[in-house]
Design a protein that fits this description.
Length: 342
């Protein structure tokens, strides 16, 4: 008969998750202080309409008064006109390009194209714009994060999801859903991404499953290029989401609008995910049929080790279909979408 394992050697039992209720929305004054934005800028952000699309999110954030210190210089006018009139950007400006917010709005879009800047700048003007670019993006990120919080305060689930989509795209340097996920990998530009796509490799999960010599053959590169690429994508976040059956809380009656859901979020990586030398943060949004915010969670991938179980209280009517969106906050290509019906 084998010896019994001492109780001190047994792994501690996983604590039963507590029922979580939606957090109280932040106070508007605290939001302005948190992001250190001017009062006029906070008023502009607060005036965004309900359920905004990508254009409305980006345009509203670009109108922050902090951007008035980045006017369109005379040497930049032809550059930004060319972007607006000849480049296939998704959102055009329907007036004369002259305002500081036009500069931000167009600069972001040309950057997300990953096709290079038009050759309409002198060397000195290009250098100056590159110098402004970092400060512009720092302000824009604060505005986008503040917008997400403002929309969350309104319980605008559709707006929160879209705001996070724009923030994630800008931080990653490529639009979510445009099939350009591979451009996030160091050493892979548009031409190499196109070669991989022709071979059926369109995302980082597919790339990470390739042999190093196959990568080198497809891209006509010598060793150790393939191994370098695989090392770069080895810890790319591979998120996982599972939803349990929704039920009424104990004592719930027919007609009650409160339900209990069990959510398990985790990652499929063998090791803890890491991207650009950092542990990514993730967001989970549950949206109702009318676009309202039903639930929101934000946490580091560190919290997902071994799987994180969340038991939540949802306010929804019987038969309502809810949308769940789970993704890394700053990495494109990690998005998971699920729907379930109460």
């Amino acid at each position: 008969m084998p010896d019994l394992i001492p109780s001190t050697m047994l792994p501690p039992p996983r604590p039963k998750p507590k029922l979580q209720h939606p957090p109280a929305p932040p106070d508007p004054a605290s939001l302005q202080l948190r992001y250190k934005l001017s009062t006029p800028t906070f008023s502009i952000l607060s005036a965004i309409p309900g359920s905004p699309d990508r254009r409305a999110i980006l345009q509203t954030a670009s109108q922050a008064t902090e951007f008035r210190s980045f006017p369109i210089h005379a040497a930049e006018k032809a550059f930004f006109r060319t972007i607006n009139e000849t480049k296939p950007i998704p959102y055009l400006i329907r007036e004369a390009v002259s305002q500081p917010w036009h500069k931000v709005f167009l600069l972001v879009q040309i950057d997300l194209m990953n096709d290079g800047w038009p050759s309409k700048l002198s060397a000195a003007a290009r250098k100056e714009l590159h110098g402004e670019r970092g400060r512009i993006y720092n302000i824009l990120e604060k505005c986008l994060r503040c917008l997400v919080d403002i929309l969350g305060q309104r319980m605008d689930g559709r707006g929160v999801t879209t705001g996070l989509d724009v923030l994630r795209s800008i931080k990653a340097g490529v639009w979510e859903g445009n099939g350009q996920d591979l451009l996030q990998v160091e050493g892979i530009g548009p031409a190499r991404a196109e070669k991989l796509a022709k071979a059926g490799v369109r995302n980082i999960r597919q790339l990470s499953g390739m042999d190093f010599f196959h990568i080198e053959r497809l891209l006509s590169r010598n060793p150790p290029f393939g191994q370098q690429v695989l090392r770069a994508v080895a810890c790319f976040p591979l998120l996982n989401l599972k939803l349990d059956v929704v039920s009424r809380p104990p004592g719930g009656r027919e007609g009650d609008s409160t339900w209990i859901a069990r959510i398990l979020i985790s990652y499929d990586n063998e090791e803890m995910p890491q991207w650009k030398k950092a542990r990514p943060w993730t967001t989970l949004v549950i949206e109702g049929e009318n676009g309202r915010l039903v639930w929101f969670w934000r946490g580091s991938t560190k919290k997902l080790s071994g799987g994180k179980e969340i038991v939540v209280s949802l306010n929804a009517k019987k038969g309502e279909q809810l949308k769940v969106v789970f993704a890394c906050e700053e990495v494109v290509g990690t998005l998971i979408k699920e729907t379930f019906r109460i």
